[in-house]
Structures are given as structure tokens and as C-alpha cells.
Amino acid sequence: MCRSMKPLILLLVLSPLAWAQEDEFSFDVEEFEPKVFEFTGYIEGQPEYARANQDSALYQLQFFGRDPEKEIDRFTGSLELEGHLRKGIASINFQTHSEMVWDYLGDNDDHALYQGYMSLQPDPSFALDLGKKAMRWGKGYAWNPVAFVERAKDAGDPDLSREGYWIIAADWITIFDGPLQTQIALTPLILPVRSDTNQDFGEPGYNNLGGKVYLLYRDIDIDFMFLSNGSRNNRVGMDFSRNMAPNFEVHGELAYFSDAVHRTVTPECKPGKPRVEDEISYLIGTRYRTSNDITLIMEYYFNGLGNEKKDQEQFYRCVHQAWESGDQDLINRLPLGKDVDKGPFSKPNPMRRYMNFRVWWEKPRNLLYLTPGVQVLYNLDDRSYSVSPDISYIGFENLELRLRGTVPVGDSLTEWGEKPNKYKVELRARYYF
Amino acid sequence: MALRVLILYLILAAGPAWGLDGTAILAQVDRNLAPDSYEMYRKLINQEPDGSRKEFVLYTAKKGRESMIALFLAPPTDLGRTTLRLGDNMWLYIPEVGKPLRITSLQSVVGGIFNNSDLMRLEFSAEYDVQGIEEQGEEYLLDLKAKTGAVAYDQLKMRVDRKLLLPTVIEAYAASGLLLKTLRYKKVKDYGNGLVRPSVMETDSPLYEGYKAVMLFAKIQPRAFPDEVFSLNYMPRVQELR
Question: How many domains does chain B have?
Fold first, then answer.
């Protein structure tokens, strides 16, 4: 072969490879042009297995008058849909949540409009929202004592979406030039409570006035918030968050509640005289990230609205007494609330002093998309706790996987000692579209 | 724009006689990469050793040397996530969580080799001081040192094309001297409005053998934004900017 032909042949052989290399990555940006209507969501399957703790108060509440179960299998299927319709300065936004549960109770389904509101935004500095909207106040990860206008979050799974309330809210942002880099945002709102609107918020017949002021001042996030007396008692609060170093953040919340009502249970297992006192709640926490991508969160929470240890123990004693005697009337007398999971003594974390410790390791040993972690919730009043190791994987397209176990640890008459399970294992597969 | 580059090039070409001003070169590199205030679209591709990929698309708005906000448009798992940067402060808004949380430049909201610093870089000259400059053939080699500890990479070694005054290769080092990643700028493209710059940035890291991360740039155009856009309360509404 002629020597001079070699480069030409080499070029001809390599040029398709070179072309392929050139076009290896492409980006059709027109595909991402804004659309008038956007529709997204996810579908989720969550099988779980739990070993029942038949000696516990919460098991006995759940299985009172039912056939006992040593093992509890449950499958929960969820569908969450989200849509946004935008035209000019107006947008209509919705988020629905549907859930089907298969377990020892049979099949149950629940459908809720989590959010559905119209937003008017004539200017980037001003917006008006009208409808059902989820407000999120506070800087804490597991708990938010200043979350005055939202449904309680699950400290063990705080990132789950939650249903909002019907509100009218405005948002006004202003920036002050200068070395102090001050931003101020005002968020006043009205939350009406009627017999058919926001009825689970509190006493009906009030248009509750609340609001939040946010400031970014000298690299510190600061919020002040209030909710006026009405369906709930008067409350004011503040929170802050600041990065003390690039990998070290501190945050805190403080709330003051006037005339907070504490429910009690008498030694005869009857509702006692409620104790009414002004209370404070606060939370202080840190978030630290190591150089090898391990993140640690530690929080201390004082819940002024929580139950005293003696009151909580009395409640547990009464449940055990009812279970042993089979006395349905005794159960009926206890302050359980309409939903046992939200009752003053049976809801999660009903007491006063808690610690949250959460650690997770992103990309352990350079394995991208894998994140093992563990969370410990500790009740400092009764020294019971739960340990929840988990591992999540986000390497598949549009799919998130999480495997989690939970082991509650505690003596009798303690919060986690009275949980319905000895341990629980759950797998969550969530596909986004 | 081309004239300005030419004049600066002619001035800098006489480097040995006049002495090289690394700070001026770095400032011009910033200006050549993007206008002072602009919007753009980016695609991020994380490629694994087996060839499988994960892709993200972001809409980004930037103003001045302090402010940047980025909205995830894809994939569906990340849709609506928004990151905001104001100086050294950085927040992440996740629609499900419903409120912004503080994050750091060291984290990675996309889970791959790119960290938040790569996604939310404002301007090199805002974050780094020029410690040294050398002429090496057709390139300058800039030795950059982070101005504060809040910057993800303590040192950068930036190779700059002498004609175009655009980066070609950047090596990012930790304070310990460990090479963390190498960024390669490729495929210079005319984006209009006098902006001619690389359209592709490829990244690899000795810490993640066989993995590669690529950033593709599109629709970079000057745009003025009000300051209120770069605020925590605006994060859930960034979509309205597009």
C-alpha cells in the first residue's frame, strides 16, 4: 500500500467513530420549552412486614375487639398527581394524593386534594394565592414547633408531602441594597374554619389570621411568625438558620403558646380536668457534613404542648386495663380523638423532650446513587427510642428505591415500648412520570 | 465583542514585556464565558463505567457576581427542585418538602461527579485569586486559590486559550493537594449577542474511576432580572421566569 494513502484510509476508518464521538451527547433544548399545562406525578408501592408487639398499648388499641395478629403484612399503593396551568400572571395548581391499603383490615382507599389553588403574580415581588395550599414553616428537620398552619409531620419520614389548608395568602418580597444583603418577605394569610372547611384545624366559626416575616440578614435566615387567637389559641414564634462553616449549619425554632390545653387521664381512667397553661416549645439543631460525604443531623426538641410522663403512663395503664378486662366502655372514655393516630396520647411523639439523630452517607466507597443511613429518635422523658436503618438507591431512571427497618426499644409504659410492632421492615419503590 | 477580545489579546500577547496580569485575564475569561446577567439551559449527563447514563436539565438565571438560581426541568424525580445561591449561601427547595433548606457547595444535588459548586458557579474571579500565571505554548496556565473556605475546590489550575481567552482544561484540587476532578471545555460555539464560548464541559475524577459527567450549554442569552427573583420566597415560583 502506498504510504501516502495510509492517513487517508485511517481518516476514512476513524471518521465515523469521530462523528459518533461528536454526537455522543446531544441536547434538544426546544423539548423543554415552557408549556401552558404541565402534568407530573408518581406511583408508589410499599410492601411492609411487621412483627406485632401484642403487649403494647398501641397494638391493644388497634386490635381491641379484633382477632389478634402476630405478624402484620401491609401493602400500600399510592398515586400522587400534580398539575400547573399557567396563563399570563395567573396559574392554577393542584396536587392530589390517592392511597390504597391492603392489610388485616381488608382493603381501604383514601383520596385527598393536597393542594389546589390559584396564584396571581403580577410582579416577581408580589403573589396572591387563593385555595388549598400547604404552608411549610420552620427550620427543623424532624419537628417544627413554629409550624402553626400545617398538619403534623412524621418525624421518621419528614419529607413526605402533606395535605394543606384552604387559605388566602400573599407574598411580598423586597430587597435592600447595601453591604448587609438584607431581604425581607412578608407572608400574611387568612385561614377560615367552618363546619365544612378546614374543620380539623380547630374550632369552627373563625377567620384565623396568621403570618410570617422572613429576613436574610448577614447570611442568617430569620423568620418571625404568628397565629392569632381563634380556632386555636394565640401563638407567636421565630426560627433561624445559618452556616457557621461551609459544612456546618445550625438552626433553631422558638414558639410561645398562650393558654395551651393539656389533656389528663384520672386514676379511674376517665378524662381528667384539662390543665391550661402558657407554654413554650423550642428546637435547636445542627447539620454537619464530613469531607467524605457523610451528613449528620442532631436536634433537641422541647415540646411544651406535650404530655407529662405521669399523664402518658396513666394513659398506657388504662389501655392495658381495658385490654385485660375487655372493657369497651373504658376504651371509649379515653381521650383518643377521632383518629387514634392523631389522639393526644396516641399520636407520634406525644411527650415533651426528644432528640433526633440522623446520619447518611452519600456515595459510600464511591458508589454513586447509593445512600445508606440511620435515624434514632430518643424520648428523653422515658428513655425509650427507635432505631431506623435505611438504604436508598436512585440510579435507575425515574425510579427511587428505599429499604428501611424500624426497631422500637423501650420498657413498658414508655413511648416506644408501647408501639404496636417489635420491628418493621418496609420497601418503598416510587416511579416518577 | 470580537474587537474587545482582539485588543485584549494584542495587549496580552506582549506579555513578557508588559508583565502578565492574571487577574485581568481571569476577569476576561469570566466575561467571555457569560454576560454579567443572563439565562441559560443546561443538560447534565452522569455516565457510569458500563455506559448507562442519568440526565438532568436545568434552567438557570444569574445576576451579577452574587446571585444565581437554577430550576430542574428533568428528570421527573427532580422536577421543580430549585437551587439558589447568594454569595456563599446556598439553598435547595424540594417541592415535596415545601421549603428551602440550606445546603453547601460541597454537596451534590444530582448525585454524580458534579457537586453544587459546579452547578452554581457564579464567576471564577468572584471565588478565586490568581496566584500565578505562566505562558505555555498557545495557552496560559493560571494558578488560582480560593478566596474563602466556602469554595468547594481550594485550588484550580486553569489552562486558558491565549487567542480566545476561554478555559480549555481546569484541574480542581483539595487543600491537601489531592486532585479532585478535571474539567475539560470543548466545542466552542457562537451563541449570538457576541458570545462565543465552549458548549460542552466534560468532567472526570480520579476518585470515581470510569465515571464521567458532561454539561451541555444551550440558549445562553443576556437578560436582566429583578433582585426579588433571587430570594427564598421566590424559589417555588421560578418556573414563572421562563
Answer: 1
